[in-house]
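Example 3.2
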Amino acid sequence: MNRPTSAELAITWEVVINEATPGFQAKFTIANQSQDTFPGKNWAIYFNQIGGSPMADSSAQAIITQITGDYYQMRPTEHFNSIAPGESITFSVPYQGSLRKISFAPKGMYIVFENADASEQAPEMLSNITILPLPNEDQMSVNGNAIPLAQWYYEQNAATTTLPDGQFPKIIPTPVSVKTGNQTLIINNNWTIAYNNNLKNEADCLANIMESILGSKLKTTTNNASAAKETILLKINPQIAKAEGYTLTANTANGIIIEGKDAAGVFYGIQSLLSWLPPDAFKENQNNLTINEVQIEDAPRFGYRGLYLDSSRNFHSKTSVLKILDLLSFYKINKLNLLVGNDEGWRLEIPTLPERSRR
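Structure, written as tokens:
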């Protein structure tokens, strides 16, 4: 028996009613663009949909059932008539819940035809799929709440304004105390990074970052590590009350002094210093950096400040993860929960089991 191929079928999905209670309603239209009749039985269409759950209706022309998760199957019922060449058929499908985004429409449709003995033929992708926009005013909201379409986002963003300097903090998260002075400091390649108390890692980190800004690495030293002009001093101060706490002092008399309760505190003080630099410093190499005098006292409000990164379900490259680590440091996030193994994937390399980490 001749039948249309998947390329000769056109499917349209359109929202008809969009209410949270009892749910929204959509309609499917299947158009037969071939010279052969589309059968009224012995086929199934499969698709994914995360917006709402189709509800079964035995009196409908087609019934949709959940296979697992957001994976569904559509099969014709006894009420489904075959579709003649050039003709189409439309039927409604009720859903639980409401449609929050048009991107929650069905995706990844394919059709499987069945032979006379009920055995399945090879799946065929359905490429001619049309998801209609929400054209009517009453379809643009759910119980009075706007659906976030592109136009809505544009209108919201168009109403935003840029805050002038002084009305937003330069350092995020906002420190416990920030006091600015009237003088300015000019940082250039003549400056030195002095450190003590086993803070070599922190000094090297700061030197590498300043090299990327100034074009050459600042000298680091432990000899007579003390406050001085044109010096960034890193030191441990056990008198600071809280772990990871720090103070940052920048003035024309003593240069820049970063004191931490521990090495972590010194490191977070360095991040605040980077935030205090002018934004243009990170666009291209600078000969000089001009900053205002400042006195900062800070300590974390929460001991655990974390980010959950799922690399098993959503793969991230090594470069991407390292960039995320830099950003976490900049915003003083101290914990990374990195998921590398789950049902969908295993991202931890084991040389004796190479197939586990294949993408």
